[in-house]
Amino acid sequence: MAVWRMLGDGPLARRRFKNLKVYSGLSTGITRRSRLL
């Protein structure tokens, strides 16, 4: 069951990780911009 879940969540987890990376990058960029301002 755990293996099936891992296989099923593979692509979704990857997409979620990518979105998290993009979101973290955006948040860091916003904080840097606010610091500059």
UniProtKB/TrEMBL annotation:
It comes from Anaplasma phagocytophilum str. ApNP. This is Putative ribosomal protein L13. Keywords: Ribonucleoprotein, Ribosomal protein. GO terms for biological process: translation. GO terms for molecular function: structural constituent of ribosome. One of its GO terms (cellular component) is ribosome. The keyword Ribosomal protein applies.
